[in-house]
Amino acid sequence: xxxxxxxxxxxLIGCQMNVSDAERIKGILExxxxxxxxxxxxxxxxxxxxxxxxxxxxxxxxxxIPRIKKHNPKSIIVLTGCLSKRQDVINRLNKHVDIWLNAxxxxxxxxxxxxxxxxxxxxxxxxxxxxxxxxxxxxxxxKYSAYVPIGNGCNNWCTYCVVPKARxxxxxxxxxxxxxEVRGLIKNNYKEITLIAQNVDSYNxxxxxxxxxxxATLLQQVDDLExxxxxxxxxxxxxxxxxxxxQVIKNGKRICPHIHLPVQSGDDEILKAMNRNYTKEEYxxxxxxxxxxxxxxLPATITTDIxxxxxxxxxxxxxxxxxxxxEVSFDMVYISQYxxxxxxxxxxxxxxxxxxxxxxxxxxxxxxxxxxxxxNNRKYIGKNIRVxxxxxxxGYIIARTNTGKNVKIKIDNELNSKQIIGEFANVTIIDxxxxxxxxxxxxxx
Length: 445
Ligand code: SF4
Hints:
- By secondary structure, the protein is an alpha/beta fold.
- Helices cover 34% and strands 22% of the residues.
- It has 4 domains: 7-130, Response regulator (Rossmann fold, 3-Layer(aba) Sandwich), CATH 3.40.50.2300; 142-256, 2-Layer Sandwich (Transcription Regulator spoIIAA), CATH 3.30.750; 291-379, Transcription Regulator spoIIAA (2-Layer Sandwich); 384-441, CATH 2.40.50.140.
């Protein structure tokens, strides 16, 4: 008798941590004999990774999940990510969702699925014995760029953020396990490796002999692994970046000069209300340290996150954020309008900045970003730089610099058409706009 081949589909919503979680889930499913399908309505198992950071991301699942069950009523829906423990979400979607899976319980997924679909391949023993889901073997989405999680959870309790409640307190992977995963990626010709955690800077692994490894040491150990690859890391907390770490980045052979440094606000009172534990002055001092140590022929890239319209944010307080943006001259700012999130400390505060005013503040910051980043990008014109080819679109090759900037390269000759996705190339930058650079391939000698 012909065995049925079970199919799975992943609905990916949320941050890089969800991307990484989904890759580990795919590893489990493929170990069980399921195959990936792009057709959601034909999948036997649909995994939905959820995000509770913004209302908009949350609202998406209230549309998607009932729709899947309507068109594919036999599918097993597994809901994971930041909303998997929220009781109001469970109450609202329980009739559609078959398995509520907290990331930390991921190693149990095969057993839970087995109970729903007993004809699946028996559960591999190595998965059952795993205590830490980050140790699961992932099925990477890309063939040249990979996220490697070094930890999960957060201890910081920023007042607006769901992560500490949703993912729990910080837990870190052993350095040797991380190094082994990276060695495997290098062996398989990966060119871009990004170490991720909610706050990489607070990585601190203590082994059985009580020896501790900091993030600076871990990054150094990864950078020491031989191979042709770029090493990135994300995300950082300004209060936790050490001088040692800046020195490791400065002296690194493969570490990219790009720091994502979420500031959230440029006003001390709002920073205090958010429980961020640094002042505007301390943040600016850190930016100076980064610039002094990491700026080279081209400046290091500094990107950030900002929330506008936090409860009680006055116009003067907002103007302090706008001023900070002008001073730092960020390369990218992910601006979000504050929205109260259940299970956070700020949830019950009076959300008194109107939606229109939040939008106006967002637009004002976007205009500042366009101006400052356009000036930053123009410094690239005329420079010959190495890029990683990441795609092609409508007659252009799309590439990325080690500073994280996108480069468009027109496909207009044989040399261009030979460029391969996932390979490095050398380009001359010929023009620049606020959000992208334009380049042309340099012929190798
Ligand atoms: S540092 Fe703050 S914003 Fe970042 S994950 Fe932790 S609590 Fe959330």
